[in-house]
Amino acid sequence: MTAEDAAWTAIDAAAAEARSGARVVRYGDHPDQIAEVHGSGAAMVVLLHGGYFRPSIDRTHARGLAADLAAATGHQVWLAEYRRVPGDPEATLDDLRALDRAAGAAGDVIAWAGHSAGGTLALWRACAADLGPVPVVALAPVVDLRWAAEDLLGDGAVVDWMGGTPAEVPARYAGIDPLPRLRAGAADRPGGGVTVLHGDRDATVPVSQSTALTDPPAPGVRVEVLAGAHHFDAFDLRTAAGAALVTALRPRGSSDRRP
Questions:
Q1: How far is CA 100 from CA 128, 148, 168, in A?
Q2: pLDDT of 197-244, one tens digit each?
Q3: CA 139, 187, 50: angle at the middle one, nearest 5?
Q4: d(CA 141, CA 124)
Q5: Hey, which residues does 45 pair with through a beta bridge?
């Protein structure tokens, strides 16, 4: 068993035993349109879990991370659930829009963050022209959906979620894929900006997914390669990867809202 496999097994086992004491808020009528609120800080971070967009993987594995981030940063962390419907990525994006409205109405959202597939969705949020700018922290994200689909990352998870290959549903990829939009400067807006954190030993989402944003450099995007870190290292805030995540989300001066 690899270190990454062992970490996921430990995270999954802990989640199975977890009993969340977080407050639950609903941002829609669907059962998946909920968020668990960890912490009570005035500033809010919206956290999107990963799982390669698979319906079988929900937010429970990220509860420990959400609670630890709330304690370490002093922020209120909204651990969001969202619909993960094979062949219907627009359902997910509709949920993110509704989540954005609900979180914005509830308080001062200083950042969106996401891990893995959740990082991809956080990057989509950073590029969403119909939503106001917000700083984003993406941890081990799938940045290039076309490449991920062609390489069958996650056993074809991207193709399943998107409902086809880039050749079969090109318009969907054009509207969602973060890489071309970030390279075009979609996230480089006042009050926005993106920090990408990615371990160089990630066996689930290759670090090359994120370093693609550095050649050529994507405007408004900072990429930090985490030496020696795998896909789940940052779930332990005691690691160097976890410390980098906390630093990216830690409160700064009131005039600087970027993570």
A1: 11, 27, 30
A2: 999 999 999 999 999 999 999 999 999 999 999 999 999 999 999 999
A3: 25
A4: 11
A5: 77, 111
- Under 8 Å between Cβ of 117 and 209: no
CB 145, CB 178: distance < 8 Å: yes
Distance from chain centroid for Cα 78: 12
d(CA 157, CA 152): 7
- The residue whose two tokens read 């630890």 is 68
SS3 of residue 62 by DSSP: helix
Dist. CA 76–CA 38, nearest whole Å:
6
Distances in Å between the Cα of 76 and the Cα atoms of 20, 23, 44, 186, 195 are 15, 11, 5, 27, 20
Phi–psi pair at 152, nearest 5 degrees: 55, 40
- How high is the pLDDT of residue 136? 98
CB 125 within 8 A of CB 54: no
Strand 43-48 and strand 108-115: pairing?
Answer: parallel
d(CA 28, CA 38): 19
Tokens of 203: 């066996």
DSSP string, 129-187: TTS----EEEES----HHHHHHTTHHHHHHHHHHTS-TTTSHHHHHHH-HHHHHHTTTT
pLDDT at 1: 78
Share of the chain above pLDDT 90, in %: 89
**In Å, how far are 26, 63, 237, 249 from 60, measured between CA atoms?**
16, 5, 18, 21
